[in-house]
Structures
1.
Amino acid sequence: MKRIGMLTSGGDCQALNAAMRGVVKSVLNSGEQVEIYGFLDGYKGLIYSNFRMLTWSDFSGILTKGGTILGSSRTPFKTIKDPDENGLDKVDAMLQTYHKLRLDCLVVLGGNGTHKTANLLRQEGLNVVTLPKTIDNDLYGTDMTFGFQSAVDIATDCIDMIHTTASSHGRVFIVEVMGHKVGYLTLNAGIAGGADIILIPEIPYDIDKIVDKINERNAKGSRFTILAVAEGAISKEDAKLSKKEYKEKMKNYKYPSVSYEIADKILEKTGKEVRVTVPGHTQRGGSPCPYDRVFASRLGAEAGKLILKGEYGFMVGYRNREIVKVPLEEVAGKLKMVDPKSAIIKEAKMLGISFGD
Amino acid sequence: MKRIGMLTSGGDCQALNAAMRGVVKSVLNSGEQVEIYGFLDGYKGLIYSNFRMLTWSDFSGILTKGGTILGSSRTPFKTIKDPDENGLDKVDAMLQTYHKLRLDCLVVLGGNGTHKTANLLRQEGLNVVTLPKTIDNDLYGTDMTFGFQSAVDIATDCIDMIHTTASSHGRVFIVEVMGHKVGYLTLNAGIAGGADIILIPEIPYDIDKIVDKINERNAKGSRFTILAVAEGAISKEDAKLSKKEYKEKMKNYKYPSVSYEIADKILEKTGKEVRVTVPGHTQRGGSPCPYDRVFASRLGAEAGKLILKGEYGFMVGYRNREIVKVPLEEVAGKLKMVDPKSAIIKEAKMLGISFGD
Amino acid sequence: MKRIGMLTSGGDCQALNAAMRGVVKSVLNSGEQVEIYGFLDGYKGLIYSNFRMLTWSDFSGILTKGGTILGSSRTPFKTIKDPDENGLDKVDAMLQTYHKLRLDCLVVLGGNGTHKTANLLRQEGLNVVTLPKTIDNDLYGTDMTFGFQSAVDIATDCIDMIHTTASSHGRVFIVEVMGHKVGYLTLNAGIAGGADIILIPEIPYDIDKIVDKINERNAKGSRFTILAVAEGAISKEDAKLSKKEYKEKMKNYKYPSVSYEIADKILEKTGKEVRVTVPGHTQRGGSPCPYDRVFASRLGAEAGKLILKGEYGFMVGYRNREIVKVPLEEVAGKLKMVDPKSAIIKEAKMLGISFGD
Amino acid sequence: MKRIGMLTSGGDCQALNAAMRGVVKSVLNSGEQVEIYGFLDGYKGLIYSNFRMLTWSDFSGILTKGGTILGSSRTPFKTIKDPDENGLDKVDAMLQTYHKLRLDCLVVLGGNGTHKTANLLRQEGLNVVTLPKTIDNDLYGTDMTFGFQSAVDIATDCIDMIHTTASSHGRVFIVEVMGHKVGYLTLNAGIAGGADIILIPEIPYDIDKIVDKINERNAKGSRFTILAVAEGAISKEDAKLSKKEYKEKMKNYKYPSVSYEIADKILEKTGKEVRVTVPGHTQRGGSPCPYDRVFASRLGAEAGKLILKGEYGFMVGYRNREIVKVPLEEVAGKLKMVDPKSAIIKEAKMLGISFGD
């Protein structure tokens, strides 16, 4: 008999349900008796002992369902050790819930912040298995995260739709893609959507290079230009600022997001009006793409295997086309970023894409 | 032999190409000899005699293609009689182009503004046939316009995707749908997407009613609320202002759009953070949906028939499930709006949807 | 207090759930107390008193869900008066279930066969309200049925995908679209997908006319030809046979379906290999399109209104853009078919589409 | 100055255009002068010197376009050395075309058969670079081929749509997925679509195991069962036959395809009617998915790089997440198959999926 706790934490994404279904199916199909405690709304559910007993039928038919049947919330790691507004010690509360329910292990699905807390719980002696969920694909220790390819599909659809209107009107368009610190999503959606310019946090941009590219396209007879811009795109000047200076600068920032600033500068330098489209949270939503369903199901099945073997303290990740277990201490607190010198960046440049550098 | 001029004007939308293909196919299949002059970028092409001779092959394979192969631009009716920056009389220039090319007629695809200018050209003696294009479905004289259903599909997709993330996080979400003056698009996408609250220009909203609905849902255990908000949604107070007063007020408007204002007010009154998603120009883009392809093709075919018969001065429209010809003077300058007392509004209310009124 | 029975009968289609949700929401939102008895698998559930009590939450989140939460089955009208294999009188059993549960009314969602049985139950004194469900749009008394537009979307997608491979290989392709007796679905998907030849039951085809069209396209340089063929497409010779003669002929029919016969004949007469694609039951599946969601929700809401008023014996239909109640006796046993002389057929021909006639 | 010949051979698939665009963009962006000879309809174009000079604009806007702008055809390798019907030596003719046009190299996009011929041309002294195209992902020497993920998406969509109708009617459904010899496509679409049983050529099935699974599901209360069956699925008995015996057996095969045979046997053994859906060529069609667009673009760019460096005799492949050059002699004539002992098969079984073994 295994008593398994389960929670999804951080921004939701596609294939969370597929992954949980994978875990549960693989444990149940092994013939092992199981009790599943689903904690609601991320770590909050664990802290406040807010859970639902889940049965087989809760996981039936959810392979294709977006979101998470457990709900999610953001519980920032940097305040996890602070007491809550009623003075409750949150870490302590999580340990108590775990022990009170006599759980054998805790399955945690989440991204970067989630993994820091998961590692903390491991250090506190809990049996933890994690699954790498994020549309950003920025988790260290795994080549891929689920949610990523689904988000690429949605952001690409968006660029595709903008393409027809951009070409009809001969306009400059910016599609703002999710990603504050890491540009994988923007990079892939940008290439897939045939963007002419791609701006990602890892490659600070020079506005003049952007303008050059627009002018070059005009000179060649291309009436329109499409930019795929990550939320965290940053100019060369801003990239040179210290954290403090940058924070100071952003205090008086007048734009809703960086895309609008870039749009303004392009208008100023070229006289061309720029339209901005922000698909926003749609990038996290909807049914997972087949790639993510297969991937999340496989990860889930392997997590189930670890549980059956009693091997804890790992994230189930993907490296060199193999599903592997990665020690949590290797994952927590690290970010995987786009290498500006990587093959894909070079290839994108060979295709004529400008990164504004 | 027919010499046909053709242009697409105003914001682009889906099925413009399908409609033009319909016109050209039906004329060519009649056996009539044809020369087709495609004016580029809307009325601008007619004004400045900027055109391309089009052949059969230009219309092959474009049934499914978004945008317009002729390009488009906005040429505001209210300045159409003013000379351009070089002193050129624009109306005069259009007449000259038409006569110089010895055109038999001009086929114009466009929305409200476009139809005013088309009617003006008719009054000046040109043979004009028009096709009703707009994602807003706000053209007078026709039950339906092409582009509308495709835009409904896209806006609904957007709400669908937001649904999974809204329910996972228990959040309030606003999806801002296109439509400055008319709410058909928001109304239909809102019902199709299962929005809980729909705000359209024709039904001014009371912020307290919106808050009531959100609270009522919470009380019933629904963790999230989704609002479909038209760009032109307006509060009861603002709706009472005179045009001048409203303009004055908007001068210092601090929000990028009305959705952000509503989001702010909801936060203020409920303490709930609200996320705003703006699909924007994607609603005009991409391949037309099958409904629009059939509809635009049929309208195009009937326009071709009018041309063959030499019957001019009409918009080809759709009324009571029949394709009809509507005199341009009946169409021009009028807006078709959602009737707050119409059956669909009542039905939506029966479904539990709040209009904030 | 209303005690409402509900069932879905016949082949399933999209938006059944949306329609039922509409009925239930509109009744519940009226403030009326309600008990909902969901009979499982169509009339079978009513016959064998197999039902589930449904609550509000059963209808939450099903707007976008394909299929039917009640299950369905085909209960042929022509055997409805025959006793079942255990000698049970089926009609009698249905009446007994109805009365035993003291139902106020029965809501029935279905197509042609379903309506005949519904009308029979009405004649037997039951309070019946029906909703027009079918991908064939062949129900008499309503301009539109839900499921139809969703099926058009899927069949069109299929033709779109075949287009790229057909043009790459210069091949003749047949896409077989659902519809044994009525061609609306094939007609609309064919036009939307840009099919070159459309064969529907209402317009018997001449194989030589089909071959002519293929040759004509080749002569013009079009390397490929796409046929949208209804399951019930019929040749002019077969159309002349009496029912008996036709049945006799079909006894030894060697093809899986008519498309394969047509493919064979084209090969014989042109030497061109023809590929057949049969999307089959996919045309009934998946999430309803936005059009169907809105339409089914509206019909459901109006059905709810009839129930609240106690007006029974009607199908809720759609005529001239208005939702209307149609007496069941007007609907039952009649088929709505494509008129070969209708405007849409003429327009399709103007677009160059051949119907093989 | 580079004179580049280019052709696409074998069954078409998604992202052929994206890959060619990648090659051409990367060569042109290098500043090198280029002449591009596009041979039409695969090797046929090279044999009969049937080509079109391609310019930059031919490759603009084709990233998202399905099919191949060059056309394709199957030219079986086993007859490549035989003279054609007019006595022409085909290999010789290809060499002549190549030399007559003074080509620097030949870029060939294709699958298994195509690579055998490409290797032959290399042996005959031509400079050849190839790109791995196939929806089957069965090319030796590369972890992935373009077209595969797009086909997975389409086949999965098909299973998704069947799911709603299968569950509504409580039926057994077979979705027949492309793949005569190799099961990657069926395997991935099956997992992604939540199929209960997956049959692939690499794992011969036992019909009784299939029946057991169906009965087991019924016993658990699951009303329906979905099988994803590869075109080349084979029973244990048939797998034991020699090639000759098997051919003999298939001479009198009465089914259109193996799915219908399996359907028949299930009916016989369970009394359950089984519906078969064959998405067929749709799996090769339509716009490439974002994954394939990025992947094909990257491969194309690297092929361009090889051309610029004058490195020939390679397929551009993908191994361990790196794009690599693979000597053609290593690729030609080998098949990559699903290993029945691989991790993904084990994981699928952990998820409860039966392979009928």
2.
Amino acid sequence: MSTTSKIMPLSGFPEWLPDQRMVEQQLLDRVRRLAELYGFVPLETRAVEPLSHLTHQGETSKEIYTIRRLHDEGDAPDELGLHFDLTVPLARYVQEFRGKLRFPFKRYQIQKVWRGERPQEGRYREFYQADLDVVGDGALPLHFDAEMPALMHELLGAFPIPRATVLVNNRKVLDGFGRGLGREDTTEVVRALDKLDSIGRSGVRELLIDSAGLTETEADSWLDLAAIRRPDTGFVDEVGALGVKHERLSEGLDELATVIAASSVLPPGSVVADLHIARGLDYYTGTVYESVIDGHADLGSICSGGRYDDLASSDAGSLPGVGISVGVSRLLGRFLGGGMIRASRETPTCVLVALVSEETRAQSAAIARSLRSRGIAAEAFHEPLRFGKQIRHADRRGIPFVWFPAMNPGEQDTVRDIRSGEQVPAEPAVWNPPESDLYPHVLTS
Amino acid sequence: MSTTSKIMPLSGFPEWLPDQRMVEQQLLDRVRRLAELYGFVPLETRAVEPLSHLTHQGETSKEIYTIRRLHDEGDAPDELGLHFDLTVPLARYVQEFRGKLRFPFKRYQIQKVWRGERPQEGRYREFYQADLDVVGDGALPLHFDAEMPALMHELLGAFPIPRATVLVNNRKVLDGFGRGLGREDTTEVVRALDKLDSIGRSGVRELLIDSAGLTETEADSWLDLAAIRRPDTGFVDEVGALGVKHERLSEGLDELATVIAASSVLPPGSVVADLHIARGLDYYTGTVYESVIDGHADLGSICSGGRYDDLASSDAGSLPGVGISVGVSRLLGRFLGGGMIRASRETPTCVLVALVSEETRAQSAAIARSLRSRGIAAEAFHEPLRFGKQIRHADRRGIPFVWFPAMNPGEQDTVRDIRSGEQVPAEPAVWNPPESDLYPHVLTS
């Protein structure tokens, strides 16, 4: 299988080295663990969907990768594309398997997704997303919206990153505020408010007046609303003080207050009502979530989501959903790619069993086997090189222990901690490494 | 995101229900755990490779899926395809990252692969493979070939399936035997021997004479060789008794004897020298491995592999490899799809905390939070329905415990095992379920 053509990285398709992959795995494990503690069931959908499903929303069609068989004889019944998120597959899956699922259906899903975007920092063509959603059959209580910020808080806290804040808003607040001001369509307003972090208050004010066609008074009302940011339900009175009234606004404020109140058990400031959060380009209908990491606001929200009242619908009625998505690859690109986190060693191996001679291969293999049977990752060295070389092999990989089989009858095996140089007698059936050396862990630096 | 087009399963792209996905995850976890105990590092490569790399071997080109951006402006520098196995990506990866890897490079890789084959029972267009390989830089000691059968034995033993046997041969034995008979090219012979299990001795004899052009005596020699199957190194003398001599044959027998001898610590019959194993369509150069599951010979080998002396090569020299691949999806298709294995319950949730009333939501949430903080998967019910309905919700999902918050001051919470009906007082900060209920496990039926 020799390769003659030149081997080049593919832009937008990053690959990790094995020690980095260990970190990625451990962070994905943490997402999985937490999702399961909360009672979410695992789901994995096929990588492909019919193109007609993928393009149904229209907006993202430019990013889709289509697939076809190299020697397609033109008999393909349906054009297929790679999924670009995990929400479209979920919407299709819950319809397809509706009769076999239990509702409310709480599922998590951790998979690669593909987008044919122009690669740039933090934008990949292949990347991991981790999604958690609850889907109801016909209706979905607000309870599930209210549970989500605590889960987001725990998820973000499970990553080796600086403190993160969960930001919550409700689309009905924005909609209702617009209606209270006599405007039905808030699309342009929401689009403008989404830019507050990048272009600031005066830039957004200009957009609101010039692009969205608001009066100066209206624009200022919106900017006052968007400036409201409270870690408690005090935002309700602050909005009330703006003097705008609409039934939908009240409904949104009630929902948002319920969600924020449910988060009051978390450390103060973990979850904040932030009335400028809109998730402009997505089709949310109620609660919306974002997050911001201290010192990394430029990274944007790596954990976001919201409620879709109509995640999927069919003759059998609608399936509302609420959920979040974690941009795992974007997070890792920053923190792992940037060298801020790393694995404590390069390999799972905890013990390298030295090979004394060709004749004692079976002895070294038996020691490694005995250690493995007790859950200690161990491998026997492959060549009877002098011990210095075998130790160097371990050292280069960060393997903490080298095991020396007894060389004469009556002698005992010894094990050396190659960091301290301490070497002690040991039996493979009983020796244990310190708990912290058993498995590589994730270090922050 | 309502979908108007009809939703249909895609042939060849199977999807599991969540409880089945839990089983799949647990089996993949076992592969990962075992690989790491043996000191293999994790690797995940991008799903796509340049088409020129994928088609380099030629034979599989018909199965490749190519990808392109839906709105490709024709500026793609290189046509891309989805990988159809994990060996071609490994060969590319070790060349691309050669300077950053440690050799011998032991890696495991568990990923989906895609093949545009016509779907049929046990053949999918998207499926999981789990590969373990060791790659050397320039040379790779036979030690690594010899370690592999024990690993295969442990892997197969970690699956909830009947007893499996590991079969080993060496291509040099077949090559050398042919040369000893005065024939350089054994391609047709190997192809015929591969059919022994399906068309039997007389059918293969006919093929050897008619298609491979052997004499009757030669054909019988080959059939005698192919009939040799020994759990120990006794096969060396049995081959010797056939009277065929060649240096390459001796070399192959030596290597095979070393591999079989290293497996002698395993339960008798676990690893067998089987001289008809050839892995006909693959480019192996020495040791070859297959496996067979008791009572499921028709499934073929779900764990196979061998040595490539030239996994990859470049100006910097060759990179020989030895490894195995587990057909996880094929195995699951048979045993999980066939209902022979299943999850002990439908959800990770161990405890459903009942909701007494709207007013006590925070109390139920706090109980669930306390249980989760000690690693017990728990969720609070979302509606204050009567307890019978909440218990039924748990029962349908196989959630073993329902927690009832105290309803009056001075009372204690209680927890009910809904299988036995036993209900006892409990505190969320100290109560523990039996170890066996903590997490769903895989049952054989």
